[in-house]
Fold this sequence. Notes:
The protein is of the alpha+beta class. Among the domains are: 56-155, CATH 2.40.50.140; 184-332 and 389-497, BirA Bifunctional Protein, domain 2, CATH 3.30.930. It has helices spanning 3-40, 56-63, 110-113, 115-122, 171-176, 178-184, 186-208, 249-258, 295-314, 337-345, 354-361, 371-382, 436-449, 462-468, 482-490; strands at 70-89, 92-98, 103-109, 129-138, 144-155, 212-213, 219-220, 232-235, 240-244, 262-270, 282-291, 318-321, 324-327, 333-336, 391-397, 406-407, 410-421, 424-431, 475-481. The strands form four sheets. Strands 6, 10, 11, 14, 15, 16, 17, 18 and 19 form a nine-stranded mixed sheet that branches. Strands 1-2-3-5-4 form a five-stranded mixed beta barrel. It has a three-stranded antiparallel sheet with strand order 7-9-8, with no helix packed on it.
Amino acid sequence: MSSTEARVKEQVAAAQLADSGQHEAQLLGERREKVERLRRAGIEPFQGKFPGRTAIAAVHDAHGERSDAGEYPDFRYRVAGRMTARREHGKTTFLDLVDGSGTIQLYAREDDVGEEAYGRIVALDVGDIVGADGCVYVTKRGELAIKVDETTLLCKALRPPPEKYHGLSDVETRSRRRELDLMANRESRDVFVTRAKIISAVRRFFDGEGFVEVETPVLQPLYGGALARPFVTHHNALDRPLYLRIAMELYLKRCLVGGLENVYDLSKCFRNEGLSHRHNPEFTIVEWFQAYADYLDVIAFIERMVAGVASEVLGTTVIERGGHRIDLAPPWRRVTLCDSIRDATGVDVLSANTAEIAQAIGEEAQPGATWDRLVAKLFSKHVEPQMIEPTFVLDYPAELWAVGRPVDGDPRLVEGFDALVGGLELASGSSDLNDPDEQRARFLEQRHDRAGDRDDGHPYDEDFVRALEYGMLPAAGAGLGIDRLVMLLTGRESLRDVVLFPAMRSLGVSGR
């Protein structure tokens, strides 16, 4: 596209946006006038409650099998929800009403409700929140409805819903204006209801295994427990910088020092890094530690947990992702990191230098490129996308895992792992180091390596090392991404589809 064509396209888009804004402003004005007319008539358009309501799904469950057309006056209900459509036929009107459980028609006749009440029904706008009282009615087409005696405007919608109410499809709009997405797409509402069920199921699994849920601080004087850049803030009263946590690990380990043997924390962490369909600066994660265990025990725990949650929420351990049918039932495949890279690229990363690893990635080694970063990049580019079958990748080079216990017989490696499903990293963990002197040495070594642009490593945390000097229970632990688990179990390809309000680049105040 030439620069002239691009400029014309931008001008057309700007004109369309202006026209859309003018049209919306006109509708907003018309609806505000309706509000004033209602108030002059003694009707409050923004009600406080509507007691005695029956969920629409319950009405369908009780009467959805009826096929004989006509009115059933013995079965009366109060229903409420958002009006999504209206169809008028002379002095008869059908309204579509949607609540959190389903959709039902409202059937109103002027001869039944009277001219004044019927006029108020006809004056309702798509998007209004409406309550209705009436009896069960089956249309000539065999469709269930409520024949209304009375309607109540519960909340006047001043702005119209999306034009394509039943198909808001623009991905950007759905992510930026989640309220419109939820309003227009039942599928989106179902995803977030499923998300809530997944989180509840994860908590039940931990609680059932005898774990104690604890809360670790979000604001930390030092960040640690992962390789990531933090968000920095300032505490005015203390006059010191604080960091939003990037992980819960170092505080959970303090719990182990104190004698809490099996602990977990399920909440938010924050990393000041890029945006992608797999990364959001704030994300939900569950981190846990199991005393007197090693990474093989944690691996078995993850298998059981993921399969158990899938069975509870979906009723099956089989999911579909990227055209693949994946069974989450244990046992999952095990392979070492070095073997997986060697099998995919032919490179032995334990003996290769930075130039050789960069060449395998398909790029030249840049100044400051470090061996551990290049190994991680090689794995993520050439190995991770191919890990479709549920797989644990084991035994990481020590440079990539500052808090892991060395593999017996090979100090170059630590007992760390990643869990991958459908080409997506789901969890990572390790057998954990409880030697304070070794932990201090690793922190100091990594601090030395963070010269220049290495601002994503572990800072030296003397308070944590001092805690280890009191003696930490032998343990292993892991972190599992809840957002990614939801992606897997709901068949979504992007975090934006499973995070209610994802971080987005700004389009200005009105466009969010």
